[in-house]
Amino acid sequence: MAPSAHDAPSAPYDLAIDFGGDRFPVSGGRPRLSWKPPKSAAAPSEYELEIHSDGRPPHYARVADHLLIDWPTRPLRSGEQVSWRARSHAPDGTSAWSTWHTFEAGLLDEDWTARWITPAHDPEVARRPPGTRPAHVLRGTFHTSDVVRARLYATALGVYEAFVNGERVGSVELSPGSTSYDRTLYAQAADVTSSVCPGTNTIEVVLSDGWYRGQVGAFRKPAGWGELLAVRLELRLELADGTRQAVRSDEHWTSAAGPVTRADLMDGQITDFLAARGPERPVLADAVTAPAIDWSPAPPVRRIEDLPTASLTRLPNGAWIADFGQNASGWIALADLGPAGTRSVIDYGEHLDPATGDLTTSHLDIQRPGDPVTVFVQHDEVVSSGAADDVFEPRHTIHGFRYARLVRGDTPLDASRLTMRVVHTDLRPTGTFACANEDLNRLHEVARWSFRGNAVDVPTDCPTRERIGWTGDYQVFLPSATRLYDVSGFSRKWLRSVRDDQLDDGRIANFSPDGRRIKLRGDQRLDMMTGSAGWGDAIVLVPWELYETYGDRRGLVENWDAMVRWVEWELATARTARHPSRVARSTEPLPHEEFIWDGSFHWGEWAEPKPRAEDGSLVEPTRGDPDAWMRSDKGEVGTAFLYRSTATLARIARVLGREADAAHYTRLAERIKEAWRTEFLDDAGHTTVDTQASYVRALAYGLAPEALRDAVAARLIARIEAAGTHLGTGFLSTADLLPVLADTGHADLAYQILLQRSSPSWLGMLDRGATTIWEDWDGVDENGIARDSLNHYSKGAVIRFLHTHTLGLRQAENSVAWERFVVAPVLHPSVDWARGTYDSPRGTIAVAWRTEGSELYISVDVPPTSTATVVFPDGEALTAAPGRFTAHRRLGARRMADDHR
């Protein structure tokens, strides 16, 4: 959401709509409105809105809430400008008006008059494979007089940049973003008033393959959204004489080759500033079919910050190695291109060879059994024109990297002319954390950077090898993401692609947007591996997390049908498919097996710490014997997630007033839980698989009966101790491990694991130089050899524990949008103070605590429409109303003093 600025503390503040935009918010016809209550102790009883739009009489409305309020008046028209403000009414009086918040409606789909235009057909370019094609320059001219307002609306099938009279339009990167292009396409709007001049004007669009038809995933397969690139652009002008003018992309535009001679989001970009502009050829008009144009709820991708070169080293072979000190997503800006004809070759990566100091990316190569190796590439080139003001910024690609190798012959390189542009979705920060333990502060920062590097328009698994929106990764990390940033619009945008990609039978694709288009292709391998527990369940668990965090009931409505289709497919598969081990046990399924989800593919507890062979080398189960791994019984994981999603669906149905559905799925969830217990848990509290992950799930999901919770926790502890006090959890359960231990009375063990330094451990990553979270616990081994991705954010979900337990701030059970929260720090000798803030939908919550000797001091700021419960280590609980709460207690003793004002 885009907030307003400079609001007075005595008035509502942070006014926003549920749409994104570049330099101003841009909505559809019915935006939702949100704001935060005045920073006063009295909770408002209602709010008053004043809305002005395009000179019409103001509209006034009174509403009871301040979160995601439905648009209270007639739908907006295309381009309509809106100013609105709010004030609150409370028992102690009426607040001041907020400052005005302004936004505009975009050009609505039915009002577009521009045509889709496609670059002229070039047989030589058409023969090139994905990853090697050039960008195209599309050009149109128009005449106008004095302009008082100019709005450029544009979108593309491909990635585009627009220029008006040579000036780049807006600050968005990688437009129009990544969506499932067969069903969803977003446009962008920009104010170009200052770029338009009286007389003849030129509009140019640089268009490349992007997500639409470039390479996808680790194996660099071509995206299957379409064969032809296209742009649709409309410029709406208001002239000084009161008239209006529209400039449209149409058959009169031309296309030509430009300086970008190769552009691929994954492989990289080549720009030749000496390349002659190709001949101007007429474009093709209306040669593509595209979905209706919409406006995104998410903030855009932007250049977020610049990092200077931390070091620049020249190798004996003449190559330069630039270290920027931080693994991130983005590209290099190179301002010193050398004399005309100088070719600078840039390769990007996450790691340096420990023996040579040279860049190495071999750990990101990948090979499917029986296939050749797919060699990892992130490679840019630029040829200098000799002009002093030329700057190379490869805006039609993006890379994950900390290091860059530059080769340019004998031409010198000045480190000050080399900058890392950090590029990702411009998410608004919402949470802070700091404590007395610097290792934990560093871990928090590393995990935050890892998420940033993977928030490039969609939540990706890594910014290097795959860069696709794996559902399991985001499902795991989302509860942590919500504590770091406002991810409401970002997540809603991605969920639309998850729905778009859902298969006809109800399965959810492993990743979305799904450029491989598994829902349409007869790829037997991909089809077999689609529909995994913990991955497909994102369609239920992500909207629910967003509802609990932001109060977004509409998100539940938007995803309801997709949720039901997914859960019904899970249930049907559990009922009709059996794992061979159970068939061998009994030809006829036992009664409870109707609810055991074991007969289809599951990724399972992916990326558990790898065992070691006798020689100390790591054993790779999925590579050493992939068939055995595929055949293994993962029914415990599948059935646990079947229960979790079915029970969550029942809760969602209750929120939506669907009482019959709520009762139905509640009954099913109980039967699934009993089936899980029957099949996987014995009377001593041991699971049949006897893994740390299975015990974490039993406790975190409420699968273990109350009478067995202590026994289950004891067995979890025994498995941890058997591993030398190391974790043994993988993808799906690591985030819950430490909270489960702390919540069952084993906080010391939780901290012991958190602070463990030998592998597998988080601090072990940091000790070996990690600046982002690794995919593999041994991402860089003791010899400095890298393996797999070094920026894979899922394991970084551990930082939720720092917020919920170390700081002690968590939302109360059954609370929505932080109307109630709990502050209950879990103390440990390694941390004698912690502080943090969370910019909740109701206002900023601040928590600070410290221990001095035997005393605990704590303070909490409670927003106006929230209440808090402060729980001390001895179990004493106090209610904190809006305002500042302070107290201190003698540790292990009763109340000493408190103050609440």
Automatic annotation (TrEMBL):
Sequence ranges assigned to domain Bacterial alpha-L-rhamnosidase N-terminal in this UniProt record: 146-272
Reactions accelerated catalytically: Hydrolysis of terminal non-reducing alpha-L-rhamnose residues in alpha-L-rhamnosides
Start and end residues of each Alpha-L-rhamnosidase six-hairpin glycosidase domain: 430-805
Signal peptide: none
Alpha-L-rhamnosidase C-terminal domain location: 813-877
Keyword Hydrolase: yes
Domain Alpha-L-rhamnosidase concanavalin-like: 314-424
EC number annotated for this UniProt entry: 3.2.1.40
Keywords annotated in UniProt: Hydrolase
Enzyme class label: hydrolase
GO molecular function: hydrolase activity
Domain of life: Bacteria
Entry annotated with the keyword tRNA processing: no
InterPro entries named among the record's database cross-references: 6-hairpin_glycosidase_sf (IPR008928), 6hp_glycosidase-like_sf (IPR012341), Alpha_rhamnosid (IPR016007), Bac_rhamnosid6H (IPR035396), Bac_rhamnosid_C (IPR035398), Bac_rhamnosid_N (IPR013737), Ig-like_fold (IPR013783), Rhamnosid_concanavalin (IPR008902)
Protein name: alpha-L-rhamnosidase
Organism for this UniProt entry: Streptomyces rugosispiralis
